[in-house]
Amino acid sequence: MIKSLFYKEWIKLRWVLLGAAIVTAGLLVYILLSVREVMEFKSAMDAWYNYIHIQKNFYTVIKYNALAWGAIFAFTQFVFETRQHRLRLLFHLPLAHNRSLYWMMAAGLASLAAVCLLTMGGLAWITLALYPAEVFTSVLWTIAPWLAAGFAAYFCMALFLLEPSWQRKVAFLFLGCLVGMLFFQGGGYDAYKHSLGAYLAFAFVLGFAPLLPAFRFKRGSY
Amino acid sequence: MEPVIQCRNLRHSYNGKKQVLNNLNFTVEAGKIFGLLGKNGAGKSTTINILMGFLEPTSGDCRIFGEPSYNISPQTRTRIGLLHEGHLQYEFMSIAQIDRFYSGFYAKWNRDVYYELMEKLGLPHNHKIFRMSCGQRSQVALGLIMAQDPDLMILDDYSMGLDAGYRRLFLDYLAKFVRERKKTALVTSHIVQDMEQLVDDIIILNKGKVIVQSSLKEFQQGLRHYRFTSPDKGKGLHADEVIANFDAVEDQVNVFSFHDKEAVEARLKELQITNSALSERNMTLEEAFIGLTGKY
């Protein structure tokens, strides 16, 4: 049954996932070319000065990538499930309702995790090739909240689409924007080093939120 | 034997406002096709939503295979096939993909039944459902339910959007499947004349209550249509224990009753209604349904 659920999600997500991989790879190539341009046409010192002293991240261009794909993955999955009350089809499958929703979300989150891994892997390759290893640790600390924002965006988009009432949808959209902004408050590198745990925990807790409108739909109380 | 569906003292109101279902009681026995009839606003959709498990009633009890309809276990759900209004399905899938998807959930999945219907469509198996006409989508939805091989089928407004040909095709396959495999089916449709050839028993809802539950044959034999001419359009006539319903077009008055001609004549006399001689008329199921529930 789980295999069947994943199969359905794979049909919905496969082209979007390919698009995400192409865009993310494109951004990584852009980052690589930009850093090499500074190093070759100016000097390695310029690159170092920009990153360490001015705190101008060479990978800022990828800042909102996970956020965008988190929202797009959730949209792709749930817009088909919620149009014309199609959630009824999911809830009639012989599976516990929370399990069917969680497995569905697991497919979307796995796709997002793949984008995050590609981002981290690509940045690791670029950074370790051009900078000392310590810089890579700093890159990870810096991009972690951006990647976590992708998961928060996924949950908020799922919540927005699963909610049957338009008034609540508007409230959730507003709330989702506020939540998204939380992950992008720090400007320089390592900005979230000491509070990252709390942000990750917050993104994880958000994962339970889409169950509430889904179960209200199931009870018909909307 | 325990009934397949049992609804007792069912009441429902949306947001505590108008009572849509008012003490609804009915049972559905195994091995028959039931038609749930009712005009718009009679409570049919609410009843179907409760039966399908997508609405928790305000009070009362509705059980399917002995389990509360809003909380049916996954195992029991494998025994229930639902056809949702508008033939809802996962339209982003193709004919072959949707078969592969659903087959993973049902141990008794019968692919041959599904593809027998799909062959009628003459479409390649990679044809996406969203590219199909309403009639073709109805065949996909029916094929999927039949492949599931459920014991109970609940079909909500199967005729919606179908032309006469697809409606007939749908009914022929449905009737054959249910009769040959001794399944139970509960169907609703706005096309009442279809029910005449399909259902064994009927349940008629009016204003949130069951006003008739009987076999189709008993209902058609029991309800009678009398007509008389009255210059004052049957003024003073009202529904009671003898007169189930009535209407007047110009000076022609139609009376619907479960009683014989003598009893109706006696009642009209009691009400001092001036009338010509009563004539009894034959009715189709649709005429009987409208006669009993009214045109408006």
Automatic annotation (TrEMBL), chain A:
Keywords noted in UniProt: Membrane, Transmembrane, Transmembrane helix
Signal peptide extent: none
Regions crossing the membrane: 12-33, 61-80, 101-131, 143-163, 170-189, 195-215
Protein name as annotated: ABC-2 family transporter protein
Species this chain originates from: Desulfatibacillum alkenivorans DSM 16219
Automatic annotation (TrEMBL), chain B:
Species assigned in the record: Desulfatibacillum alkenivorans DSM 16219
Domain ABC transporter: from-to ranges: 5-232
InterPro entries, alphabetized: AAA+_ATPase, ABC_transporter-like_ATP-bd, P-loop_NTPase
Domain of life, source organism: Bacteria
A Pfam family it matches: ABC_tran
Protein name: ABC-2 type transport system ATP-binding protein
Chain segments annotated as coiled-coil in the UniProt record: 261-288
GO molecular function: ATP binding; ATP hydrolysis activity
Keyword terms, alphabetized: ATP-binding, Coiled coil, Nucleotide-binding
